[in-house]
Amino acid sequence: TLYLLYTQLGLAFLAGVIFAIVLIPINRQIALKIGQLSQGLMTAKDGRIAITSETIAGAKHIKTNAWEDVFLNKIERIRAEEVGFLSRRKYLDALCVYFWA
């Protein structure tokens, strides 16, 4: 296919090839960062699910002691962290699509 590009465009095809080669290490770094963010996201999800399960299991005690706000704040704080990981990961996903689409 490079030969066909060369016959159609001449040496101008090299600009596209060089650009694609330059993007490979950039894409690798983005992919590594996406992996790190995914791990953080999974950790945050696990924490949120654990505290939610704990809240549901102890709902009677939580209601009796009026701890609803305490547990709600814990869940919301963990959810905010989870959404932060997710939004950064999706931003990097969009960046990858922008570079390669």
UniProtKB/TrEMBL annotation:
InterPro entries found in the cross-reference section: ABC1_TM_dom (IPR011527), ABC1_TM_sf (IPR036640), ABC_transporter_C-like (IPR050173)
This one is known as Multidrug resistance-associated protein 7
Instruction: Note whether Chaperone occurs among the keywords.
Output: no
What Gene3D superfamilies has UniProt attached to this entry?
Answer: ABC transporter type 1, transmembrane domain (1.20.1560.10)
Write down any Gene Ontology CC term: membrane
Q: Which UniProt keywords apply?
A: ATP-binding, Membrane, Nucleotide-binding, Transmembrane, Transmembrane helix, Transport
Recorded hits in Pfam families, A to Z, give: ABC_membrane (PF00664)
Record keyword Nucleotide-binding present: yes
Classification of source organism: Eukaryota, Metazoa, Ecdysozoa, Arthropoda, Hexapoda
Q: Name one GO molecular function term.
A: ABC-type transporter activity
Q: Which residues form the ABC transmembrane type-1 domain?
A: 1-101
Q: Write out the transmembrane intervals.
A: 6-26
